Amino acid sequence: MSLCKQYYCPILSFLLCFLILASALKVGNGHNLEKQKPTNKSSITAVYIFGDSTVDPGNNNYIKTIFRSNFPPYGVDLPEEAPTGRFTNGRLPTDLIASYVGIKSLIPAYLDPNLSLKDLITGVSFASAGTGYDPLTAERNKVIDMATQLQYFDEYKKKLQRMVGKKRMEYIIENSAVVISCGTNDIVYTYVPNYLPQQPDKVAAYLHFMLDQNHGFLQALIDRGVRKIGVVGLPPVGCLPVVMTLHNSLYQPRSCIESFSSIAKDFNQMLKRQLTTMQASQQIATIAYGDIFEPLQDQFYNPNKYAQSTLEPKAPKNSVRAIFVFGDSTADPGNNNYIRTAFKSDFSPYGRDLPSHVATGRFSNGRLSTDFIASYVGIKELVPPYLNSSLSIEELMSGVSFASAGSGYDPLTPTLSGVIPMSKQLEYFMQYKSRIAASIGQEKTNELINKSVFIVSAGTNDFVVNYFTLPIRKRMYTIPQYQHFLVQNVHQFIKSLWDQGARKIAVVGIPPMGCLPIVITMASNNSITRRGCVESQSSVAKDYNQLLQTQLNSTQLSLQDQRTRIAYIDVYSPLFDMVQPSSNSNYSFEYVSNGCCGTGYLEAAFMCNPASYVCTDASKYVFWDSIHPTEITYYLIFKALRSVIDYIIKD
Ligand SMILES: *[C@@H]1O[C@H](CO)[C@@H](O)[C@H](O)[C@H]1NC(C)=O
Ligand SMILES: *[C@@H]1O[C@H](CO)[C@@H](O)[C@H](O)[C@H]1NC(C)=O
Ligand SMILES: *[C@@H]1O[C@H](CO)[C@@H](O)[C@H](O)[C@H]1NC(C)=O
Ligand SMILES: *[C@@H]1O[C@H](CO)[C@@H](O)[C@H](O)[C@H]1NC(C)=O
Ligand SMILES: *[C@@H]1O[C@H](CO)[C@@H](O)[C@H](O)[C@H]1NC(C)=O
Ligand SMILES: *[C@@H]1O[C@H](CO)[C@@H](O)[C@H](O)[C@H]1NC(C)=O
Ligand SMILES: *[C@@H]1O[C@H](CO)[C@@H](O)[C@H](O)[C@H]1NC(C)=O
User: Fold this and answer.
1) What kind of fold does domain 323-514+536-579 have according to CATH?
2) Which one of 62, 312, 340, 503 is most buried, by most CB atoms within 10 A?
């Protein structure tokens, strides 16, 4: 998943150009600004932002509105639009800009009550997701309209004057750069629902109205002492996910709605002319137009060109050399493709949202948390399955996954599904080591293993597929006894990895099992209408996780090696949070108890197949099929466990 794919990059590159121009700095010289004396007339003192969600760093967190997430014009593939997720709500472009020009690393929301003095002096964003040039747009969406943003700016100036004095305040404003990004919501939420796009005279009249509003706004800024203004045009509105979703038939392939995009194109032409005229009619302020239409359109039609660009977070510098993964479908990138089992996913719609759009054998629409971790640590974008015999020595050396969908810590579990047991995964790891040693020698192999991260993720199948479903283990063990049995097996497994040289080991707990769509379906009396989590099963997961943590601590102690790091990874809490109704969740998924594939109640593996109905926008779903998370969920889980990864990879 690339954060840059949808909206950010073009806006980002425009802002960069604009600010570089505005500050008369040469490219690449940005960092020096920080050290420059404020007396340098040509440098930017502050950055102010006005507009909508493209540039709102979170003002809407402080007002009553539903316009906090799931909202265009982003791809909405970005979970972080939710107000609590950090680099969200347009934080990304503005933040990068601010740090690029060296002013600060974040442009904070003006309404944030905790702004420091320095924050205020170097600029804030007044933008509000959901707003538009048309006051009606903001009113409907209950967000901050442009006139109020301007009022806030006045209020801000007074505050600034109290802090630094009138002269200094005027100097800061005069040497600041202002960026305005707005208009999409007017078209999507106000114009289109009220008039049909086919009525050309009405379109033109509305666009003129928007431009008049913008003209007034620019003039007001100039009157207030602003001298450098950049105005961002509209994106290809017809290619925005929300527009495509609303106006395409569900069963058609997604495509841009040309009639909508052409409205945006017309608007941009008119805006450009307006800005040129305004620039020509006065000499005091510099006004620039930023085109994001063409680059975005290009991205939509040529997505592969952009697939590599990524702004995902990166770990601090570290010496980790490789990543090794063991476990079940949460970590299997396709080992099951090479064995005889029904637990496979090497067919569409699996893998639909991978850059290659190819079903790799990952049980999701895209990447797994382990892929995101590998990328975060700086190793590779995808962790390949060990059983692919075509992997090059280089690919092998940066790590592989031995995991097998359907596996578990109880040896009976993989037997039921005909998949690779944990013991066999360990054997494969030993085989792997000999292969590497044959190529680079024993000593270097040991060093490689010593500096690698190990991730172990299993346990759910032991309960869902085995204990809860079949009588065998139930006859032998009570639930607490079975939990204990599993945790002992985890201990054995970790100990064996350690004996093989592993020193950085993360063990993933199990999710709230009672919230898996398939479990809800099986346990509920009316599986269509009653889809709350099955508390009894989740609490088994909770107890198991507790036991696991205690065991990992004592495993760590028993090894008597200060350099070894064994950590527990909690997936229970983030997932539990995600499946709550959006009103009391930190996330805002629309579908939390059914998957994107098929009915979402039952289908997984071969039942989710090329003939299945599949939802258009998987990012609205916590689950991809009835058991496995979507890519976005895996990404959010990865984000929630970053601090543990940081701990593990420390030298
Ligand atoms: C002020 O900015 C100009 C133009 O970028 C630069 O050449 C000059 O060195 C700067 N002066 C100071 C004192 O930083
Ligand atoms: C602002 O700071 C106070 C005190 O540090 C804290 O209690 C509060 O939660 C903060 N508010 C926000 C919105 O960050
Ligand atoms: C196996 O690995 C090779 C080398 O990376 C790759 O080209 C190939 O696509 C992989 N095979 C499958 C089925 O993924
Ligand atoms: C692993 O590396 C550390 C230092 O990088 C070293 O102190 C330790 O002895 C190594 N352990 C093994 C088992 O090679
Ligand atoms: C299902 O129905 C049975 C019998 O009416 C009842 O005992 C049970 O609690 C119900 N289960 C759920 C999950 O509602
Ligand atoms: C395990 O150890 C960690 C770190 O020492 C500690 O924070 C945690 O509370 C311990 N957990 C249990 C269940 O003992
Ligand atoms: C949301 O996140 C906060 C802070 O991480 C956490 O304390 C809270 O429990 C979460 N909310 C829910 C519903 O889980």
Assistant:
1) Rossmann fold (3.40.50)
2) 503
